[in-house]
Amino acid sequence: MGAQGRLVIPARLRKALNLKPGDRLVARQVGDSLVLERREAIEKRLWAMFSHIPKEVSLVDELIAERRAEARREDVE
């Protein structure tokens, strides 16, 4: 690691992973390790996780409705 915290990914790894200049990577800590992952891979995983939710459903609206219902129940008690 350089003085400014920059890392160089060895050429053999860049080639094996088909990494190109300009590829967007996300760094995250997993235990004592640093994991680099393509941003696109993370986006695909997130879309897959939430793909079961119909597009016409607003999770924000549902959350607000739930919170308001809780507040009304608390006021009654």
TrEMBL record:
Transmembrane segments: none annotated. It comes from the Bacteria. One of its GO terms (molecular function) is DNA binding. Residues 1-41 form the SpoVT-AbrB domain. Pfam families: MazE_antitoxin. SMART domains: SpoVT_AbrB. PROSITE patterns: SPOVT_ABRB. The keyword S-adenosyl-L-methionine does not apply. Keywords: DNA-binding. This is SpoVT-AbrB domain-containing protein.
